[in-house]
Amino acid sequence: MRKTLVTGAAGFIGSHLTDRLLEQGDRVLGLDNFDPYYDPAIKRRNLQGALKSQDFELVEGDLCDYEGMVKVLNRFRPDVVVHLAARAGVRPSILEPRLYERVNVGGTTNLLEAMRHSGCPRLVYGSTSSVYGRASRPPFAEDSPVDQPLSPYAATKRAGELLAYTYHHLHGLRTTCLRFFTVYGPRQRPEMAIHFFSRLILERRPIPFFGSGDSTRDYTYVDDILDGVLRAIDHEEGYGIYNLGESAVTTLRELVDMLSAALGVPAVLQPMQDQPGDVPATCADIRRARAVLGFQPQIPLAEGLKRFVAWLREERR
User: What is the pLDDT of residues 79-96, one digit of tens each?
Assistant: First the structure.
């Protein structure tokens, strides 16, 4: 039985991944500090199913606690670590850059050192499309420039990729970095656009509508992301970086119209200025992930939004 450590296990992607790993027979240790960035009770609900499994253990711990991380890794001795824990969010990182550096860079360094001391050979690192920043033009390929990040969040996630490479070079850590493109679906964090907009529409409240509405995003349903993560876990390599996205673009205006149609409620817009730190467009070039990992997204945005809305309605009952 493979032993997998998932950091950020109570979060949106982490909890879904934990469920999938348990379904396929892994023994899973979930690490989460239940940070109040959003309501910790939501995160605890995310793990209700996993906690019923005898093959799952939850550790409430913090990446910034180096000694605690060493103890966890030395006790559990995982075959692979999937590192999803991070301080998330582009705009909040502009307000608290030191916090983002401490968690996303310092915490990742603590994890890598703990892995080195415990002899864990394998890392899958959850990165972000935000690393492409200003220098790249969509569709973003893995060899596009990533030297002009537009937010502290993006800079810290790129730093994590570089740190992982250093540990691969110095200590032989086998690493796969996955750049996620705007993931959505059931359990999505409440401040993320699709979830946030949906609640406002249902409550007949205005949506903060930034810019002209022409900004575009590559929205990726969580099940497609999970497929890519699971394929990455099973793929043995020295060091690699892969985009995981839908490889299709939707404008902000189109997204709001699609959400309004799926919810059956008209949207009210509150025009606002563009936000600093946001990139105007994202789109994933997934040719490398297709060729090497066999990654192939299956859920188009229209279908994914229907599934999300069904989940949201159930949650609000």
Answer: 999 999 999 999 999 999
